[in-house]
Amino acid sequence: MIKAILLDIDGTLTNSEKQITPKTLAALKRAQDKGIILVIASGRPTRGVVQYGNLLDMPYHHGLYVAYNGGRVTDCENQEVLVDITMPQDLVTAVLQHMKKFDVIPMIAYGEYLVVENVFAGMIHDGDRQFNVIEYESRCCDYRLMEAKDLVSFTNFPVHKILTAADSSYLQEHWQEMREPFKDTLSCMFTANFYYEYCPKGINKGTSIQMAMEKLHIQPEEVIAFGDAENDISMLEYAGIGVAMGNATDKVKEIADEVTASNDHDGIALSLYKHLDI
Length: 278
Prior knowledge:
Elements (H helix, E strand, L loop, with lengths): L3 E4 L14 H12 L3 E5 L8 H6 L8 E4 L4 E4 L5 E4 L4 H11 L5 E6 L2 E4 L6 E4 L2 E4 H8 L3 E4 L3 H4 L7 E4 L2 H12 L6 E7 L2 E6 L4 H11 L7 E5 L5 H6 L2 E4 L5 H6 L2 E2 L7 H9 L3
Parallel strand pairs: 1-2, 1-14, 2-3, 7-10, 14-15, 15-16
Antiparallel strand pairs: 3-4, 4-5, 6-7, 6-11, 8-9, 11-13, 12-13
Helix pairs in contact: 1-10
């Protein structure tokens, strides 16, 4: 019996237009009507997932928000924080200092602000697409923008993750060098072709969801999870049924229990019809 549904956002819950398709929206609402808990798990901050939780009526069904790739878990009905883990301050400084060696754009969440060193230097390429990644991130996560002359000296507060962005081709060439000093002390991962992130060691979507599910007395075999990217792997491995979207990376498809249709073709809804009586 499924008691919880775990959902990544970008490339999974939402389609290419950043919308939840009507069929997927209806299927997830019917699941909640049967008492199944929805869990939105994203690399975004909590403020960046709330809009989707509200569309799904999650605050009325004891849903959970898993933000910062697992750094914070919040009960979206009463706002209770179930998990809250930040990076060691010395590693925050070390990562930001290390990033100065690369042609990347570091970004830090600071309350309602997204802090960068130059708000006008956000253009990157992802394949044939060119776009302003600072604007993209701020709009997706409902941030206001702030400039800091130097992120290293500015960032003296608790940080859940450090997000870096660059041309996707550049990251493919340099991610190993970017990770090398921190491979044993932090969790480092791609969350999109153009995003590479640093999080506390051992903290990912899977570990934080496990902590939250244990508090709710829900077992892994009572959970189904949907994802498409590298940072979803731990969540799919934790769940009794791990489902890769049709648009998922090959690495995600390899570890998944099954593969459904893409995010543009109601992959979540089709899988739920298969596993649930909705």
